[in-house]
Backbone:
């Protein structure tokens, strides 16, 4: 049960978005440009993985399952493989660049101030561009917002993790804006 | 030195928003609606929420900017100074005290918001929408603070920059200036 009367039964952020469409629109637009816009040298799967990792570190069940399922869909990984990556990003079968970006995302999750010059230098040495650094920090920061929004209002989430896996292909195809989120 | 090359001479958030207008647009739209849209919370009250969260996150640029905006809207500096220290000591309504406690909880983690914190806000007269907007404003500033500090953006050289910025936030709001920012010097 959410802390406020949403007058709908949609889980997680979808219930909040149906309650307050005025804020839903820019929130979805931000997710679309950050995670799904194809004018990006990070793949959709890599960006969803950053979102999943931050949501995991923030212990937000709904977000880590929605975005973990999308990351699994794009990267063609099982739920178990995604779980392994979020629990041990540095030991995961990821490129050195992605490992460096995941380390920066983990710092951002704690505090913007936790990002170090050494982390930035390591990412650049492994080929990360300024744009990729920007997007990594902003995706991590955005999920520090989304996670707090979802949990701070006490929304409910389906417990069956396959619920999220089953929805992922359609969510990937339709995106964050051009779809009716409330179905 | 910022961690990435920013096209702009602008310190803090403005340089980031100008460098990446594609991601800036929804962030600006969300902020304009939450902090300046029709609301039963005043603009000053919403700026206090932004300030308390930025202060708790130790983001110097955001804290100074939103303190200046709140002071300008309130016409005095005591209230904002006190809410940063402890909302219960500040000359704000019981409802605002309760909402600021929710904002402080959100800052740490969404999971730190308890039914007791929400019940206190409701018993002090907060509406469901005011609670919703408080949580989302606090969450939004957890984004801003991390964005500004996580990319190592510069602080303005001159403290008067914040007064000019506060006037812009009060008189114009959070949408992009139609003429851009090339006339502004740090």
Residues:
């Amino acid at each position: 049960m959410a802390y406020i009367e949403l007058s709908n039964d949609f889980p997680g952020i979808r219930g909040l978005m149906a309650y307050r469409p005025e804020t839903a629109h820019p929130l979805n637009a931000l997710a679309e440009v950050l995670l799904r816009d194809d004018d990006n040298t990070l793949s959709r799967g890599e960006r969803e993985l950053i979102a999943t990792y931050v949501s995991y570190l923030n212990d937000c069940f709904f977000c880590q399952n929605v975005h973990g399922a999308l990351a699994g869909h794009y990267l063609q990984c099982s739920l178990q493989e995604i779980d392994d990556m979020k629990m041990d990003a540095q030991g995961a079968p990821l490129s050195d660049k992605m490992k460096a970006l995941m380390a920066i995302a983990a710092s951002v999750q704690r505090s913007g101030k936790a990002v170090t010059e050494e982390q930035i230098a390591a990412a650049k040495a492994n080929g990360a561009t300024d744009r990729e650094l920007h997007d990594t920090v902003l995706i991590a920061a955005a999920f520090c917002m989304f996670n707090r929004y979802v949990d701070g209002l006490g929304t409910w989430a389906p417990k069956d993790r396959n619920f999220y896996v089953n929805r992922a292909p359609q969510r990937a195809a339709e995106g964050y804006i051009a779809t009716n989120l409330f179905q | 030195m910022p961690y990435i090359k920013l096209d702009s001479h602008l310190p803090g958030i403005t340089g980031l928003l100008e460098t990446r207008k594609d991601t800036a647009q929804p962030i600006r739209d969300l902020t304009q609606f939450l902090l300046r849209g029709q609301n039963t919370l005043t603009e000053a009250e919403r700026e206090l929420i932004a300030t308390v969260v930025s202060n708790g996150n130790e983001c110097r640029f955001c804290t100074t900017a939103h303190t200046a905006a709140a002071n300008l809207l309130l016409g005095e500096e005591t209230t904002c100074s006190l809410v940063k220290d402890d909302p219960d000591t500040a000359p704000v309504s019981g409802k605002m005290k309760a909402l600021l406690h929710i904002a402080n909880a959100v800052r740490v983690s969404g999971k730190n918001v308890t039914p007791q914190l929400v019940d206190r806000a409701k018993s002090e007269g907060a509406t469901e929408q005011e609670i919703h907007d408080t949580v989302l404003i606090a969450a939004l500033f957890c984004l801003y603070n991390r964005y500004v500090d996580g990319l190592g953006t510069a602080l303005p050289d001159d403290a008067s920059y914040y007064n000019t910025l506060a006037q812009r936030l009060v008189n114009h709001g959070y949408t992009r200036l139609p003429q851009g920012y090339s006339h502004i010097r740090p």
